[in-house]
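pipeline stage [seq->struct] | target=Helicase ATP-binding domain-containing protein | organism=Engystomops pustulosus | residues=464
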Amino acid sequence: RPRRVLGVPGTQDLWVSPYRKPLEPLTNRPVCVDSRQHEAFIRSILSRPFRVPIPNYKGGLGARALGIKKTGVRRALHDPEEEGALVLYEPPNLSAHDLLKVDKEKLPVHVVVDPVLGRILRPHQREGVKFLWECVTGRRIPGSHGSIMADEMGLGKTLQCITLMWTLLRQSPDCKAEIDKALVVCPSSLVRNWSNEVGKWLEGRIQPLAIDGGSKDEIDRKLAGFMQQRGHRVPSPILIISYETFRLHADVLHRGSVGLVICDEGHRLKNSENQTYQALNRLNTPRRVLISGTPIQNDLLEYFSLVHFVSAGILGTAQEFKKRFEIPILKGRDADASPADREKGEEKLKELISVVNRCLIRRTSDILSKYLPIKVEQVICCRLTPLQSELYKLFLKQAKPVEELTTGKMSVSSLSSITSLKKLCNHPALIYEKCVEEEDGFQGALCLFPLGYSTKSVEPQLSG
C-alpha cells in the first residue's frame, strides 16, 4: 500500500477508490468552491420552512403545531373580575379539601361574554343573553336546549343572538368551544342584513357564509363545504341562509350536524305540517333558538308548534296538549261557559304560561323609555272645508238606517265607509272617482265639485 504523505499537494487523488465514481450535481447550482460558500448554501436550505412534498396535503392536526401539552390550572377566556363583565356561568366554590381531590385540569371555568360585546349591551340585553345561554345549555330546563326570543321590535334581538353565537363558538365551562358551527335561517330579505350585523358587532373577527343567490350546484357545493368543517378552528363557523333556500337544499344540510340553529321571524313555523318546518325539524342540531316579535298566535296548536320546535316534549305531544290545555282553555272562553269551566280554563292558562315562560323571554318597548327623549304630542284640529263638509253630509244622508244594520242588508260595509270618510277628510280628490261612478254614499255628489275640476291639478285649498 502506498504511504500517505501529509501536507504534500496533489496527494489526495492517491487515496480515491478506483471503484468510486465522481459526484455529479443534481441541479444547475454552481459547485461551492470554498467552505464559506458551502456554509451559506446550507444555511439557505435550513432557513426555509418545511413543507410536505405532496400537492394539497392537509395533515390530521390541521393548523395545530407540535409541542408539549400545556398543563396547570385552567383559566377563563375573559376576566370575570373585570368591571362590567357579563358572567354567564360561575363554577361552584370548592373547599381546600375538595380541591386536593379534584384534577385541576378538569375544573370548570367562568363563562364570560367577550368585552367587545359586553360593554355595549344594555341591561335588558344582558338579561336576555344570560337567559338564552342557560336555555340552550340545558341549565334552565334539564334535557331541553331551546328558547324563544320574543322581545318587541327595537330591543336588540339580533345583537343578543349574535352575542350568544359568539360565546358558544369560543368558550364553555369545560374550557373549550361549546359548538363548532351555527346556522341562521331567516327571510331572504334579511340574509345580507344578518351578515352585516355579524361583521358590525364582531368587528370582522369571523367571516360568515351568507348564501343569497347562485345556481343549485354552486349552493350545494358551498353548503357541503360548510357541513364538512370540523374542529374548533372553522374558517366560516356561521351560515346564513333563507327559508326557501334551506328547504330546497335541506338534503345537503341533513348530512351533518350543526351546534346551534337560529330561526329569525320564527312565527313562520307555526304550521307543523309545512315543508319548511319539517325540514328544519329534521336538522341534526341539539340547540334551537326562535326569534319572533309576535309569538302569540290565535290558534293554540300553532303556539304549540313554536314551543315544540325549540323544546320538544315540555308540552307533551299534540294530542296531550290538546287534551291538557287547549280544550279546557277554549271551553272556559266560550260565551256559554259555566263558572266552573271558566275557573278551570283560567287555571290551565296560568299553568301553560308558567311552563312556556321557562323557555320564552319577552319584554315590551316600555323599557326603552328611559333611553329616549321626552315624547311631546301636539294635536291640531282642522275644520273641514265647505266642499268636504257638503260631501260628508251627503254621505250621511245616503247611509242606511240603523234598522238595516241589524238585518245585514247594508250594501256598504262599515270598514269601506270608514275608509271612504278618511279619504274625504284628507282631500276630496281621493274620493272623486267614487263620485264620478256614483258609488254607494256618493250618488249625486259630482255636482258639488267646482266646474272644470280635475284630480291632475293640486288644489290644497279644498282640504281642511
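stage status: PASS
auto-comment: The domain at 111-312 is CATH 3.40.50.10810 (Rossmann fold). The mean pLDDT is 84.
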